[in-house]
Amino acid sequence: MSSVIQPITYLMTSLRPNRMVRRSLTYGFLVLGLLLIGPPIHRSAWLGSAQLHTLIETITTLLGLTTGAMALVRYYTRKSSTYLLLGSGFLGAAILNSYHLAITSSFLAGRTPSALSALTIWSGAVPQVYLSLILCASLVAWMRETRRPSVTRIKEAYVYCVMAFWMVATLLFFTFVPAAGGYYPDRFITHPTDLAQAVLFVVATIGYLLKGAWKDDDFEHCLVLSLIVATAAHLVFLSAFHKIFDASFFAAHALLNAQWVLVLVGLLVSMHSIFKREAENATNLSQANRSLATEVRERQTVAEALRQAHDDLEVRVQERTLELLRANEELADEIAGRKQMEHALLMAKEAAESANLAKSDFLANMSHEIRTPMNGIIGMTELALGTEMTREQREYLDIVKSSADSLLSLLNDILDFSKIEAGKLDMEMVAFNLRDALDDALKTVSFRAHQKGLEVVCHVLPEVPDALQGDPTRLCQIVLNLLGNAIKFTREGEVVLVVEKRNEVNEAVVLHFAVTDTGIGIHREKQSTIFEAFTQADTSTTRKFGGTGLGLAICARIVDLMGGRIWLDSEPGRGSTFHFEVRFTLQKNSPARYKPIGIEMLRDLPVLVVDDNATNGRIFEETLVTWGMKPVLAAGGPQALAALQHVSGKENAFPLIIVDARMPELDGFSVAKAIKLDPNHSESVIIMLTSAGMRGDGERCRELGINAYLPKPIRRSDLLEAIKMALGSQQHGEKGPPVITRHLLRESRRQLKILLAEDNAVNQLLAVRLLEKRGHTVTVAATGKLALEAHETQSFDLVLMDVQMPEMDGLEATVAIRQREKKSGKHIPIIAMTAHAMVGDRELCLKAGMDAYVTKPLDVGYLFAAIDELVDSALQPSTV
Ligand code: ADP
Question: What's the pLDDT at 874?
């Protein structure tokens, strides 16, 4: 069933015309209906009465009043000039209609002076004219409003006044002016005056239709309907009725009532929709109010939560502020504490610094105080050994000397260690020859090694550069310590020193030294502590081997100061290898050579010796006298200056001045400074002797122009060499030669005067180059005979003798030299150089009196080794 209804409903809905069409059709049908009912009503013979007319007019008036009042209510509900005009118009029309009602009522008939009934037609027309005009005026007002919406609305009072005036004027007019009948029974339009109202209603109808509001607005729709009805009432019935109270007459009145009803309905519908909308608005408003209230409540809750959070925050902020205050107080306390601590630290630092200062003063004092008597012991022993004595006495003195030497080395160790600890150990930066320095070190220990039956080998690999810059004394100290230990802790086997080059960058080279022994070795657990001071691997061995446990600690500290590292490999029972690596700078230029003067030049040379220690003074005096010099002793700085003052008239009265560095009142440096400032003595050669080398002393010497700076106790041979070198440089007028140090002495001792007997020019050139490169001075003799002559006239340290030469061969020349030497008692080392590498050649050479034998072509290493060996053994006796 529903399946049938549904499409029908849909069809109907879709076919249903829209509202505008519907309303247009309604207007059309209404007009048509009204036109159609016109003729039958005209033809009807029915006749009403005056009472019916009064009743209808009463209804009309009431309807008009109600409609007017309603329209004004509508106006006050939603203000619009149309409703004001319509409302007041309707009211006015109603009032005018009531006048018509009064005139036409049967109650007043015959009671008025004039025939009021004569006014019936006119009074009936007046409200209609009035109404139709008002309706047209409402249209004009609407048009004005639409065109210029900003224009202020018509004031109500004016409207009411105009209405009242109009009504009064109308009443008065109809009261006093008698109206014409206006009835033409023969014409189709019997009452043509009514056409005027009909035209006005038609205009209003057309105006409202054109306005177009009827399409949507219910009131306007009803208004248009009412206008059509009113137009029809006038056009169809009122303008064409024949008799008063006939069917057309009443039909017109009924239609006029219908006109009011329609307007009223429109107003009611409009009011209803307004009220409905208002009610909806009110509902929406209350809804909105409710949701607003809910929102307000929610907001209040949120605000409450916020306030709570704010309060919490306040509390927390207060707590934090308190904490912060507390932390600040703690911080302030801590800062105060820190400041106190800092102050204490500063005090401690100052105390430590002053303690350190005191320590270094003490160190310098100790060094001086210990070395001075040691100097006495060693010096006097050396002097004594130079005198005639029995074999027993010599033996005792030898023991005294060797004991003094060991005591001195022990003291040196202790002082060195304290110097390192106090940060007072200074590293020198001098040019030196590595192989020579190591040879020296080896020589020192080789005697002890040979006594124990140990082999000591030194192997410097060929790629290791020789000419280095650094501190050779400290290097030798390390090597000597390691070699000394190796020998001490090895019963049998060998001790080997190997030097390798690790790397060479720019002007520097890193060398690796390894001292290997076949001794007792060191346990693994002891290896890590072995470089600490006073540590010994096996305390029970202390007694057996002796020692202080300082040696390795000193080595480690020195290596550290040199920017290197030290370590060891060892296996108990198998031996140990001590390694260390240090960096040296390569020499750019070979150092300036000293040309020492001969000992004979020292004869009668005045020397000023400045030393506060009487024993030392005596030793110097006697030593210098043995070399033929004329020493003058001064027991301190002031005395020395006085002695110099004494001879101030004489220029260079003391070509040589030997000064002790450490003296009370005026120290050696001050004395040297005063001497250099005195023009009479500024040329004097100054040799400074020190018992406690201090940081920066070398630099001070250089600045002051001191020629030599040597440690005490000094060996006689060293002193002599230093004197000869210093005076030699003075004599040769060398500018700014390096300060003569113990190391420089050692170096210079190796610069030999060599006589080269060689006939071959190429060989001559080669040998000369090689030898000179090593710092030796070479004199060439092309034959044996010339060599012999040179030997006679000049002094040489060594002869390199070619065996085969013209005129006189090497063997003959050697024999001649040895013959000559028998008288002088000297022995010059002669090395044979021969291409005759035959069996028996060596014996021939040695038999002729030569000391060594090298074959040609020359092996440089071998040649130098032979030279060094011979020179060392030749120098040995003279150093005592
Ligand atoms: P010491 O004066 O006692 O020799 P060192 O510091 O030179 O002081 O040596 C510390 C200790 O290291 C020695 O007592 C010894 O036990 C051990 N030691 C050092 N060198 C060697 C070595 N070559 N072989 C075995 N033990 C060694």
Answer: 54
Output the six-digit token pair for 788.
Answer: 């012999």
**Rounded mean pLDDT, 218-245:** 88
| CA 538 to ligand 1 centroid distance, Å | 9
Task: Tell how far the Cα of 342 is from the centroid of ligand 1, in angstroms.
Answer: 42
Tokens of 486: 């190796």
Question: Beta strands 494-505 and 467-470: pairing type?
Answer: unpaired
pLDDT tens digits for range 233-273: 988 888 888 887 889 889 998 998 999 999 999 988 888 88
For residue 830, the cross-strand partners are 799
CA distance 65 to 53: 18
Contact (CB, 8 A) for 582 and 563: yes
Residue type, 296: V
Question: Could you identify the atom of ligand 1 that is nearest to the CA of residue 490?
Answer: 24
| Close Cβ partners of 153 (under 8 Å, ≥ 6 residues apart) | 79, 81, 84, 145
Query: What 3-state DSSP class applies to 399?
Result: helix
pLDDT of residue 29: 94
Tell me, using a 6 A CB cutoff, whether residue 520 lines ligand 1.
yes
Does 465 score more than 50 pLDDT?
Answer: yes
What lies within 8 Å, CB to CB, of 570 at 6+ separation is 521, 522, 524, 527, 576, 577
Note the pLDDT of residue 866: 79
The answer to whether the CB of 549 is under 6 A from ligand 1 is: yes
Per the model's pLDDT, the better-predicted residue between 698 and 688 turns out to be 688
pLDDT tier, 399 (very low <50, low <70, confident <90, very high otherwise): confident
Residue nearest to atom 17 of ligand 1 (CA): 537
pTM for the full model? Answer: 0.43
Question: Which alpha helices (H) appear in 386-433, and where do they start and end?
Answer: 391-421
Distance (Å) of CA 153 to CA 80, 142, 146, 212, 527? 8, 11, 12, 22, 119
CA-to-CA distance for 423 and 3, rounded, in angstroms? Answer: 119
- pLDDT of 513: 96
What's the confidence (pLDDT) of residue 879? 28
Cα separation, 241 vs 193, in Å, equals 12
The tens digit of pLDDT for each residue in 531-559 reads: 877 666 665 655 556 667 788 888 998 99
Tokens of 547: 């020692």
Cα separation of 423 and 765, whole Å? 51
Cα distance between residue 75 and residue 91, in whole Å: 13
Query: Who contacts 187 (Cβ-Cβ below 8 Å, separation ≥6)?
Result: none
Ligand 1 pocket residue status of 516, Cβ below 6 Å? no
Question: Measuring from atom 11 of ligand 1, which residue has the nearest CA?
Answer: 536
Question: Residue 509: what are its φ and ψ, rounded to 5°?
Answer: -135, 140
DSSP one-letter code for 491? S
**CB 135 within 8 Å of CB 201:** yes
Q: What is the mean pLDDT of the chain?
A: 82
